[in-house]
Design goal:
Translation Initiation Factor IF3; alpha+beta; 2 domains; four-stranded mixed β-sheet; single chain
Amino acid sequence: MKIVRTVGSLAFVLGLFVAIFAGIPWAVIVAHDPPVPWWLRTAVFCLLGGILVVLATVALEQKKAKPSAQAPGTPAPDRPVILLNSDRLPGREVTEVLGLVQGHTVFAIWLGKDLSALVRLIVGGELTEYTEMMGRARATATDRMAAEAVAMGADAIINVRYMTTSVVASAAELLAYGTAVRLSE
């Protein structure tokens, strides 16, 4: 289903760009009632057909989707530092504060996925395209923060926080930050 939706999104984007960047100039140059060329008709059909395919696949996904109680996502791979959103780790004490560490990224999705998300706004449901984008952004920012802490010789990062900001309609900035510390044995 995802492949069909991707093909529909590609057809839409291709049709849109051909219609705008080739069709409009063609219409301006040949202004007096010429027959519409085959390539412009194909572009318009791709544009409209792509939207139809995306609508159909999203509707089918919504119909198949059932609320399920599933376990949280797979745990993050082992990192050389411990990440905590509190200021203490039971059984160990902070022996040295090394300073602030952070990881930062800006992620975006391409126009085809953005189209799928816009359709889902109409029919309802989870915007999986943005969920996947933000998950990848969070993992990237966290890995960058952990790498900075490892370079400082930290055992852990305490008071880990995440901040997100919308950059443009289909892009978001994600910042992960915390305090790098050394711990007692």
